[in-house]
Design brief:
Strand content of chain B: 15-25%
CATH architecture of the largest domain in chain B: Orthogonal Bundle
Radius of gyration of chain B: 17 Å
Largest sheet of chain B: 5 strands, mixed
CATH topology of the largest domain in chain B: DNA polymerase, domain 1
Number of strands of chain B: 9
CATH topology of the largest domain in chain A: Aldehyde Oxidoreductase, domain 4
Structural class of chain A: alpha+beta
Helix content of chain B: 25-40%
Radius of gyration of chain A: 29 Å
Bound molecules: FE2/S2 (inorganic) cluster
Protein name (chain A): CO or xanthine dehydrogenase, Mo-binding subunit
Number of strands of chain A: 38
Strand order of the largest sheet of chain A: 1-2-17-16-15-18-5-8-7
CATH superfamily of the largest domain in chain A: Aldehyde oxidase/xanthine dehydrogenase, molybdopterin binding domain
Shape of chain A: globular
Number of helices of chain B: 5
Distance between the termini of chain B: 64 Å
GO molecular function (chain A): iron ion binding; oxidoreductase activity
CATH class of the largest domain in chain A: Alpha Beta
Number of domains of chain A: 3
Number of domains of chain B: 2
Oligomer: heterodimer
Pfam families (chain A): MoCoBD_1, MoCoBD_2
Protein name (chain B): Aerobic-type carbon monoxide dehydrogenase, small subunit, CoxS/CutS family
Strand content of chain A: 15-25%
Distance between the termini of chain A: 71 Å
Largest sheet of chain A: 9 strands, mixed
CATH superfamily of the largest domain in chain B: [2Fe-2S]-binding domain
InterPro entries (chain A): Ald_Oxase/Xan_DH_a/b_sf, Ald_Oxase/xanthine_DH-like, AldOxase/xan_DH_MoCoBD1, AldOxase/xan_DH_MoCoBD2, AldOxase/xan_DH_Mopterin-bd_sf, TAT_signal
Largest interface: A-B, 71 and 64 residues
């Protein structure tokens, strides 16, 4: 079977050449992937889609998931892969647990005695000899060489490979927790490094908040200083100096006002700490890779939020090495991560292990101790918040924030977590002036990276805790104080950018203010405490708005309509458990009347579009962008990872545009042709039939009283008439969409796309048919007058927000210090939910995770922390059903302003307001305001 | 020194497995994964804390209970009958799902799970609960507490549990004989 199998021809799509290595990707949902699993993962859309109600009855991956089918990479063994050898090897990693001494090798004597020595050991020497270099993004070498001091706890030193499971698992057990395996040498002290980065956003608004700012990051600049002795060097303050110098002048003025505030102002200052936490994604990191020595092909099965990164960096790594790998196959599986599988270094260890596994497929799968030790964490933040407020009016005047984000020992997204945290810190409020400094620091802690909430959880929780205290100090109702200071539509954020669309945080506040948990809080407190001696009742509230998206989104999507009326969809997003595949299928219904029938996720194969990318979209200069954009196939970013709540809005965007183009240039002309048949212009003639009046009802298209037509009929006619039947699109967003003009059917259209290819039905004229020359038979259109959002918009930080508020009722046990969450109610604004059940599921799960952050989850940073390899959930408490008021909790989603509201990202914002709500509720219960999270029983007992 | 093994034979989802020589120190979860290629039973913590690895053990007296396979040796199951998540739905000869078990259908329709890594544990725990209630029905006013008690040890990081527990409640209420009126 193996001999005659040629995956590159039979089942896989060749996506591109990266550094001379052919890249092939077989995705879930593609025929190739289905062949790899015992069952196709997605259920037929016909069963799931309720045409009458235009809704999904269940998630498309649901049947597979609830029957325990192989959906995770973790479930895959060599024998599940049709073209792999059956024999499965297994590997694990040896890691150092000290950073104050040099590493001097390891001792496997313990294994030798039991004949358990590995079949192959991989060390830094192998990598050095074979030219294997980790992608620059990830910082230091994959494996530490002897004689060096580990730069973080848990630094890998060797990969141990076994060609059978039994010896692997016993050997791994024998070495677990053993302190005498790694040998250390001379004392060196802990490593020191410069911070990863520092960012400062200064803004001075106009007296009229709606007029142009005096100074802002968006108008002028963000400060990113150099360092001397690990401290930032700030520019000189000059009133009419360079942008940076002027910023420092304004910073000085702000500081003066805070130090000696004008009459009638009060300045509040608090320090907050947000702790170090683990994602605890239930599927721990794992990969299964096979390096086929005979053909030089590398095969990678893994769960990832960033398939495009792996499909480009892994072949690059191989190409630069001594291994003559000419072909690279990636199988991205359904997974779960909350950020932990975005830009993770883990898959590269699996890749490297395979190179040394003597031609066997090798599985590298973390156990939970290893996962705690080695996988990215949430950044601990130390924050100093200062707010100046006018006492009588309660109006905020100045916001100053200094935050330190601990990024740990391997570079990851620490810089962006820090500045995203800073730029979100204002929450839902308008501040006339602000000065926000964020610094991401190196430490020997196991690395921190992307994690649901991404810095904003830390800063906005602190802001909401401060607002509550401030309201108490000022004697103003906390929700009233919030309303007085609301960032309204058209006002600017702390970067000087105007947020997209209407601001609906005010509606969230009004609803919270009317909720019985809030209106009856004092009566309920009295009643509860009378009925429960020894317990203290409290109600707290928090409200935030969180950005969604990365500030650079590149997305491909393809929608194809068959002559039978079936819809095929491909998109770049990965299924992380959020119901992404189901949601993508469903968004097609807006234009095509039903959900897609075939869905390809994590697709990285878009060569039909011939698009290319160069430069860094976040930091490129305007003239560089202008120059590059002259190439009609250039885009600032090809594909973004699945993270930052970006799928609902950004990843759906080109899907919806593609479906709209098929409607407008395929289905609508077919419908008009039918409705106009017959004498005198047919049934359409007596009425005025316009495209704007088109509606899908029960899966059929009607407009202005026309006879409803089925998708099957219209699809057949669109094909016969040679209309547009498929569209492949690329979109780019930098806090606004790139636009370009395209000629479709002789009409010039300005579209929010920077790349577009079309297919026409069989009835198309010969000229159109001749134009469909791409590998998949597309006509690649030439764009004109492309407009990319100016690079200066990078300084906007954020423009897309979803608002969310949570009320929490809780009881503090004065004997044990335990906090019991009794009830909570969450109010979310997210535009138009695609699948409401998926939105509410995200909300409920987010709130639970927020409860864990507020009350339970915490770890020491260094030698006693997870880096020592002994952490598991026996000492890291994950919220369980009884911790989250599972039967009592409620939520509501604000109705969209209209059915044309966007599908906003919401999976992160929902976990945040519950955190300050709990802190504020504890303050209501016992009168003490905690500023360091989590609020654990011992901290409570200490103050009681 | 070679690895000590012993023969293991058991019944999984109604099918006889073994006898087959497996290491004496092998955990049941590893047996299911590496020897039986049944990977629906998941590894979460390896410590007995998360219950992702739960299977159902069927007793001769007709009762059933949950067991954690990450902390129980494979040989403990010698001669026993167990059910895993793969065994609940009706399937055709090729293994294609013909009909889900009621609790699976309910989880599906309630959108109970997201990533689903924990779902096998919840399917098994809810099944054991339902089978217990068939023997010992519960008063309606104790139903929610009974469900929380039965499922509380199962960790789900994605969902916040609401849709799991609501689905279990619906299934119990719509199955005759599980709830007695107070
Ligand atoms: S894996 Fe067995 S209880 Fe967690
Ligand atoms: S659905 Fe993901 S852990 Fe439960």
């Amino acid at each position: 079977m193996l001999a005659d199998f040629d995956p590159s021809r039979r089942q896989f799509l060749k996506t591109s050449m990266v550094a001379g290595v052919g890249v092939y990707v077989a995705n879930l949902g593609s025929p190739a992937f289905a062949a790899l699993f015992e069952e196709g993962i997605l259920a037929p859309t016909d069963a799931a889609w309720d045409a009458e109600a235009a809704r999904m009855r269940f998630r498309l991956d649901g049947v597979s998931k609830v029957t325990g089918a192989k959906v995770f990479a973790r479930d895959i063994r060599a024998r599940d892969m049709p073209h792999w050898p059956d024999r499965q090897s297994h590997a694990f990693i040896l890691r150092t647990t000290r950073c104050d001494r040099t590493y001097e090798g390891f001792d496997l004597a313990r294994l030798e005695a039991e004949d358990l020595l590995p079949d192959r050991v991989v060390t830094a020497q192998d990598l050095e000899r074979d030219g294997i270099v980790v992608p620059e993004f990830y910082g230091p070498d994959l494996l530490l060489a002897t004689g060096q001091t580990p730069s973080y706890l848990g630094y890998p030193v060797a990969i141990l490979i076994y060609h059978d499971f039994a010896r692997y698992s016993i050997a791994k057990n024998r070495l677990k927790f053993k302190q005498d395996v790694i040998r250390y040498g001379q004392e060196t002290g802990y490593p020191q490094r410069d911070p990863y980065g520092t960012f400062r956003y200064i803004r001075v608004g106009n007296d009229d908040a709606y007029q142009p700012d005096v100074y802002s990051a968006l108008q002028e600049t963000v400060l990113t200083p150099d360092y001397r002795k690990r401290h930032p060097i700030w520019p000189e303050a000059l009133r009419s100096g360079s942008d940076a110098e002027t910023a420092m002048y304004h910073a000085g003025r702000i500081e003066e006002q805070l130090a000696s505030p004008p009459e009638g102002w009060v300045v509040f200052e608090r320090e907050y700490y947000s702790q170090y936490t683990d994602h605890f994604a239930m599927e721990a990191d794992n990969s299964n890779c096979w390096y086929d020595r005979s053909s030089g092909a590398m095969h990678v099965v893994c769960g990832t939020q960033s398939p495009a990164e792996l499909a480009s960096w892994m072949p690059e790594l191989l190409a630069k090495s001594r291994f003559a790998s000419k072909r690279f196959f990636l199988h991205p599986a359904y997974t779960v991560g909350y950020g932990s599988k975005d830009a993770s270094v883990f898959p590269y260890y699996g890749l490297v292990a395979a190179l040394y596994a003597d031609g066997h497929p090798v599985r590298l799968a973390n156990d939970r101790y290893e996962q705690f030790q080695a996988t990215m964490k949430r950044h601990p933040f130390s924050m100093r918040h200062r707010i100046a407020v006018e006492r009588d009016s309660g109006k905020f005047q100045i916001f100053k924030l200094v935050l330190d984000a601990n990024g740990g020992g391997r570079a990851n997204y620490s810089n962006s977590v820090a500045f995203v945290g800073a730029t979100a810190a204002q929450g839902i409020y308008y501040f006339p002036s602000s000065d926000l400094t964020a610094q991401a620091n190196y430490s020997r802690m196991p690395e921190a990276g992307s994690y649901r909430g991404y810095g904003t959880l830390q800063t906005m929780s602190a802001t909401e805790m401060m607002i509550d205290e401030l309201a108490a100090e000022l004697g103003i109702d906390p929700i009233e104080l919030r309303l007085r200071n609301l960032l309204k539509a058209g006002m600017k954020n702390t970067q000087g950018a105007i947020p997209a669309g209407a601001s609906r945080a005010g509606e969230v506040l009004h609803r919270a203010r009317r909720h019985p948990l809030w209106t009856e809080r004092e009566q309920r407190k009295q009643a509860y405490e009378a009925a429960h001696p020894g317990k203290r009742y409290g109600v707290g509230f928090g409200c935030v708005q969180k950005d969604f998206g990365h500030g650079a989104e590149g997305v491909f999507s393809e929608v194809e309509l068959t002559p039978e009326g079936r819809i095929r969809l491909r998109n770049i997003g990965a299924e992380m458990g959020t119901g992404y595949a189901t949601g993508q299928a469903a968004v097609c219904a807006a234009w095509l009347g039903r959900a897609a029938d075939e869905i390809g996720t994590a697709e990285t194969e878009w060569s039909d579009m011939q698009m290319e990318s160069s430069g860094n979209p976040y930091i490129m200069a305007q003239d560089e962008q202008d120059r590059l954009a002259r190439n009609p196939r250039w885009t600032p970013l090809l594909m973004q990872a699945s993270s930052a709540s970006n799928s609902a809005y950004y990843f759906s965007f080109p899907t919806i545009e593609a479906a709209r183009i098929i409607f407008r240039h395929g289905l609508w002309p077919a419908a008009l042709e039918y409705w106009s048949r017959g004498i005198g212009g047919g049934q359409a003639a007596p009425y005025v039939v316009r495209e704007q009046e088109a509606r899908w009802v029960d899966g059929k298209l009607t407009a202005s009283g026309m006879e409803p037509l089925s998708l099957e009929f219209l699809a057949r006619r669109a094909h016969e008439m040679g209309g547009v039947t498929a569209a492949m699109a690329h979109a780019f967003n930098r806090w606004a969409w790139a636009t370009a003009e395209y000629e479709i059917d002789g009409q010039r259209e300005n579209l929010p796309l920077d790349g577009l290819a079309l297919k026409y039905g069989a009835g198309a004229d010969s000229q159109k048919r001749r134009s469909m020359t791409s590998p998949r038979g597309y006509h690649l259109l030439d764009r004109a007058n492309v407009h990319y959002p100016p690079t200066q918009r990078n300084n906007a930080g954020v423009t897309y927000y979803s608002a969310c508020g949570t009320l929490v009722a809780l009881a503090v046990d004065t004997g044990s210090g335990e906090v019991e969450v009794l009830d909570h109610h969450t109010i979310l604004e997210c535009g138009n939910p695609i699948v409401p059940e998926l939105v509410s599921g995200q909300l409920q799960g987010g709130v639970a995770m927020g409860i864990g952050h507020a009350l339970f989850e915490d770890m020491p940073l260094y030698e006693d922390g997870p880096g020592n390899g002994t952490w598991n959930i026996n000492r890291y408490r994950i919220p369980r059903a009884k911790d989250v008021a599972v039967w009592r909790q409620t939520s509501e989603i604000l109705p969209p302003l209209s059915d044309s509201d966007p599908h906003k990202g919401m999976a992160e914002v929902v976990m945040i307001p519950v955190i300050p709500a709990i802190a504020n509720g504890v303050a209501h219960a016992i009168g003490h305001r905690f500023t360091r999270l989590p609020i654990t029983p011992d901290k409570i007992l200490e103050v009681l | 020194m070679s690895i000590a093994t012993r023969p293991l034979a058991l019944t999984i989802n109604g099918q006889q497995h073994g006898p087959i020589e497996v290491p004496v120190e092998l955990m049941m979860l590893d047996y299911l994964h590496e020897y039986a290629n049944l990977t629906g039973t998941r590894f979460g913590c390896g410590q007995g804390m998360c219950r992702a690895c739960t299977v159902i053990v069927d007793q001769d007296d007709g009762s059933s209970h949950e067991m954690r396979t990450c902390i129980t040796g494979a040989h403990y199951f010698n001669g026993r009958r167990i059910r895993t998540v793969e065994g609940h739905a009706q399937r055709d000869e090729d293994g294609e799902v013909l009909a889900l078990a009621p609790i699976q259908q309910s989880f599906l329709e309630h959108y109970s799970f997201q990533c689903s890594y924990c779902a096998p544990g919840f399917v098994n725990a809810a099944t054991v609960l339902i089978e217990r209630l068939q023997r010992e029905p519960v008063a309606r006013d104790q139903l929610e507490d009974t469900i929380s008690d039965a499922l509380n040890d199962h960790i789900c990081r994605c969902t916040g549990y609401v849709r799991y527990l609501a689905a279990v409640r619906d299934t119990i209420l719509s199955t005759p004989g599980l709830v007695k009126e107070a």
